[in-house]
Design brief:
The structure is a single chain. Helix content is about 35%, strand content about 25%. The protein has a 5-stranded antiparallel sheet with strand order 4-5-10-6-7. The protein is an alpha+beta fold and about 260 residues long.
C-alpha cells in the first residue's frame, strides 16, 4: 500500500467535510474492492474515510410500502432480515448468494452500489424493483443511477445513505456465477411491479440495464413461452476470459426463462 491518512468520522456531515478538506480522498465501507486495490497499489488516495462508525447509515426499516436499507447494512444482514424476507424475498435471496460468508459479513449494499461493478448483483434488483438511492444531497431514481462502466450519477464526495425498495413479493433473481468469485457472468432479475413487469440484467454489459423487449412480452403474457422466441443481441455486451458476448446474450435469455418459471 501507499501511505495515506485514515479517518473514522461519527456523522455523515463530518465525513463529507473531511472529504472536502482532503486532496484526493476516498470513502471505505466494507472494503471488498478498495482494500485489494490499495494492496496492489492500483490506487493512491491521500485520505481514506471509513464510514463504518456512522450509525445512521445502518439498519433496515419498513416505511409505508418501501423497505429502506441503510447503506452500511451488510449483505448477510439483508439476507436474513425478517422485513426483507417477508416483503421482498427475492432481494434477500440475492444478498444470500453474494460471494462467500466472509464477503457477506463485511460487504455492504451502499459500497456495492457506489462501486458499481458491472458484475455486481444489487444493480439488477435496484433497476427491476424501481428503487431509490438516497444520498447526503438528494434522491436518485434507479433509472438515472447507472451511467457507464464503474460510473454512476454520484457526484464527487457524495455519500449513499440508504436505498428504498418498493415492496414486491413476486420477483426472482437468477444468475450464472463465476465459480471462484461468485460474481455474475450474467444475472437477470424479474419483478412484477405496479408499473408492470421489469426485467433487469447485470454482469452481461458494462453496467446494469433493463431488457425492454422481454418486459413488453411478459406484460402481455407472463410465461416462459412469451420470451422464448426473443433473440438477445450481443451488441455492446462484455467479452472476456470468462464468456464471449454471444454467450452472455444467450445467458440473458436462459436466465430470464428460469426466473419466469420460478415465479410462475
Amino acid at each position: 500500500m501507499y501511505k495515506f491518512n485514515f479517518a473514522s468520522p461519527a456523522t455523515i456531515d463530518d465525513a463529507a467535510a473531511q472529504f472536502e478538506a482532503s486532496d484526493d480522498a476516498t470513502y471505505i465501507s466494507g472494503g471488498m474492492t478498495l482494500v485489494p486495490t490499495l494492496k496492489q497499489r492500483l490506487a493512491m488516495p491521500s485520505d481514506v474515510i471509513d464510514l463504518s462508525k456512522i450509525a445512521s447509515l445502518k439498519g433496515i426499516s419498513l416505511d409505508g410500502d418501501m423497505v429502506k436499507i441503510g447503506a452500511m447494512t451488510t449483505h448477510a444482514q439483508i439476507a436474513s432480515d425478517g422485513l426483507v424476507v417477508a416483503n421482498i424475498p427475492a432481494l434477500a435471496e440475492l444478498a444470500g448468494g453474494i460471494g462467500d460468508a466472509s464477503v457477506r459479513n463485511r460487504g455492504t449494499i451502499g459500497g456495492s452500489l457506489a462501486n458499481s461493478d458491472p458484475a455486481a448483483d444489487y444493480p439488477a434488483a435496484v433497476l427491476a424493483l424501481g428503487a431509490e438511492i438516497h444520498t447526503n444531497k438528494r434522491t436518485i431514481a434507479a433509472a438515472d443511477y447507472f451511467v457507464e462502466l464503474f460510473e454512476t450519477a454520484l457526484d464527487e464526495g457524495e455519500i449513499i445513505t440508504s436505498i428504498s425498495f418498493p415492496v414486491c413479493k413476486v420477483a426472482n433473481y437468477q444468475k450464472f456465477s463465476n465459480p471462484a468469485s461468485r460474481y455474475a457472468i450474467a444475472g437477470v432479475f424479474i419483478a412484477k411491479t405496479s408499473a408492470g413487469v421489469r426485467v433487469a440484467v447485470t454482469g452481461a454489459g458494462p453496467y446494469a440495464f433493463r431488457q425492454n423487449e422481454m418486459e413488453a412480452a411478459l406484460d402481455g403474457d407472463f410465461s416462459a413461452k412469451s420470451i422464448d422466441g426473443i433473440t438477445v443481441s450481443d451488441d455492446g455486451l462484455n467479452e472476456d476470459i470468462h464468456a464471449s458476448a454471444s454467450y452472455r446474450a444467450n445467458l440473458i435469455k436462459v436466465l430470464a426463462i428460469r426466473a419466469v418459471e420460478a415465479i410462475s
